Amino acid sequence: MIDELIRRYGKYMGGINYEKVLNDLMSEEDRLREIERRLIGMETGPQINYEVMRKLERRQLVLKYMELKSQETGMLELIKELKIRGYTKAEVTKAMRRLRKIRRQIRIIKQELKLINGEHTNATKGLKTDVFND
Fold this sequence. Notes:
By secondary structure, this protein is mainly α. 72% of the residues lie in helices and 0% in strands.
């Protein structure tokens, strides 16, 4: 019924793109059918394997960590070279800022790796989680 109204009076609705409205209504119906199927209990669509995703994320972080460590080593060598050759303090400071940025990124990646690996913080250590079976 709504489809018919939109088709019939769409051109009089002051610039509303009635084809887009119809497409949105159709996608809304499809989405509601999908929710209905899930409520009924039918498995639909591809299932996400979270363990594989976690391994991929871990691998990406380790690779980024290794890259940043090599950049850190190169930057330390650069700073030593700048000091030895007597470059200005401004140039050495600029290199040290870059080194700080790299080290900050390394710290962030270490924290993310700890979260992915499931290491708990000190706040959660020793807490009882299974209080009903004691």
